[in-house]
Amino acid sequence: MIVLPRSFYIRKDVVAIARELLGKYLFTQFDGRLTGGIITETEAYEGVTDKASHAYGNRYTARTEVMYRIGGTAYVYLCYGVHSLFNIVTNQVNVPHAILIRAIHPVEGIAVMLERRGEKAVTKDFLTGPGKISKALGIHYSHSGTDLTQKPASLNGDGIWIENRGIDPDPEKIRTTRRIGVDYAGEDALLPYRFVLLWE
DNA sequence: CGGCCGATCCACT
DNA sequence: GTGGATCGGCCGA
């Protein structure tokens, strides 16, 4: 039950961190409602040199400014005008690395997550997809910039954080592939920066 | 200021 | 398998 500290996020190898996030627990608490699950799919975005990254070529705008902050900050943006996509900033200040969380296995606050999604029951693909995760966890693009190293001090405090609860995935259960939906990135679309933890 | 487009999802065929 | 939804961000004029 250890909240991941700053030291976890400020390391330089964003691809290694993306892989290590598999099996960690992502939690949110909003309006006194705790929700969360086990991270099962991630993608690394390697900053200024990565054509698939919003920060490619040092692009610095009102939206991407958050990517240049200290590791352990949330970067959330609106995709296709509908979906808030949740990312974790890594590395030091001014190195805009980020990791997209693409799937989790539901654990905590399942009734709340079902309500937010407008679903009646949990199916196999309930939280597979970055847009679905944000909707279920109550994450909105206005949460971009949230400090992920601070767990709320009380039961009615708001926050987003990640815990290590001792799961150490079997390497045999991890698949590595190219990233989804980034064909516009040319040869960088082929990089092996997506990690999937086979669950069940 | 106008126009294009997206790190997606879901309904429908 | 496919196409529409939907709107903020980004870029060029």
Q: Count helical runs.
A: 4
Oligomeric state of the chains?
single chain
Portion in beta strands: 25-35%
Q: N-to-C terminal Cα separation, in Å?
A: 23 Å
What is the molecular shape? globular
SSE topology string: EHHEEEEEHHEEE
Structural class: alpha+beta
The tally of strands reads 9
Low-confidence stretches: none
Rg for CA atoms: 16 Å
Mean pLDDT comes to: 97
Q: Percentage of helical residues?
A: 10-25%
Instruction: Describe the main β-sheet briefly.
Output: 9 strands, antiparallel
What does this structure look like?
The protein is of the alpha+beta class and 200 residues long. Helices cover 14% and strands 30% of the residues. It contains 4 helices and 9 strands. Strands 1, 2, 3, 4, 5, 6, 7, 8 and 9 form a 9-stranded antiparallel sheet that branches. Strand 2 and strand 3 form a beta hairpin. Helix 3 (110-117) crosses helix 4. The longest helix has 8 residues, at 110-117. The two termini are 23 Å apart. The structure holds a DNA duplex (13 and 13 nucleotides).
How are the SSEs placed, and which strands pair?
Layout (H helix, E strand, L loop, with lengths): L1 E2 L2 H4 L4 H7 L4 E6 L2 E13 L28 E6 L3 E8 L6 E12 L1 H8 L12 H8 L21 E6 L9 E4 L16 E4 L3
Antiparallel strand pairs: 1-7, 2-3, 2-7, 3-6, 3-9, 4-5, 5-6, 8-9
This protein binds a DNA duplex (13 and 13 nucleotides) through strand 4, strand 5, strand 6 and helix 4.
